[in-house]
Amino acid sequence: MTTASSPPGPPSFGLLLRQVRDGLMRCLDRSMAELELDLCFGHYLGMKALAHMSPCTANELAQAIDQNPSAVTRLLDKFQDLGWVRREAHAQDRRALQIVLTDEGRALWQQLKQRGDEAIASALRDLSAAEREHLTSLLTRVRDSLNSP
């Protein structure tokens, strides 16, 4: 199906990937707005990374979510002000701080994860389980091809 914003014919691969990503982000942003915490997709990514990496340094988090360190510092300032993370002295490097997800942050992540899972389920609802597995396999291969030397 062609929309007014789409050129006629099949969409380009890159455009299609962008449209899927943007659609998922919009869906998740709408869902997170219901929490009335002024969160966006970038906050979701930060919380997701912290849920898997905490404790970690701000630089490690910046690399994990592909953001510059100053943007991550602002993100962490917000998270700390809201009680979702705390900064602690690094055990091995006295010059560094570790970012630790608090119990409140972990509880928030569970809410965000559920909303993220629901957004993905909604996006994939018309695909069978086998089609979802196949799509994931193909996208993984494309990603790996792009990351190989």
TrEMBL record:
It comes from the Bacteria. Residues 10-144 form the HTH marR-type domain. Keywords: DNA-binding, Transcription, Transcription regulation. The keyword Transcription regulation applies. The keyword DNA-binding applies. Transmembrane segments: none annotated. GO terms for molecular function: DNA binding; DNA-binding transcription factor activity. It holds the Pfam family MarR_2. One of its GO terms (biological process) is response to stress. This is MarR family transcriptional regulator. It comes from Xanthomonas theicola. The lineage of its organism: Bacteria, Pseudomonadati, Pseudomonadota, Gammaproteobacteria, Lysobacterales.
